[in-house]
Specification:
single chain; mainly beta; two-stranded antiparallel ribbon; 1 helix; 4 strands; about 10% helix
Length: about 60
């Protein structure tokens, strides 16, 4: 599974409960995936393609090429 190259955010797994929470046995697994983008950034002065989450892009943790 893909992962952010800056903050190493990746998919997390959990349980999705049914609408009526009276029957606890009615649960299924679900996945929360990060909002990843493949961008060209400057790494040590040279352009490189890495996978970065949208939060790292917004906060300015990478410099785009």
């Amino acid at each position: 599974m893909a992962k952010c190259a800056i903050c190493e955010k990746n998919a997390i797994f959990g349980n999705k409960l049914s609408i009526t929470r009276s029957h606890i046995s009615k649960r299924t697994t679900r996945t929360w995936k990060p909002n990843l983008r493949t961008v060209k950034v400057l790494v040590n002065g040279e352009p490189k393609r890495i996978t970065v989450c949208a939060k790292c892009l917004r906060s300015g943790k990478v410099t785009r090429a």
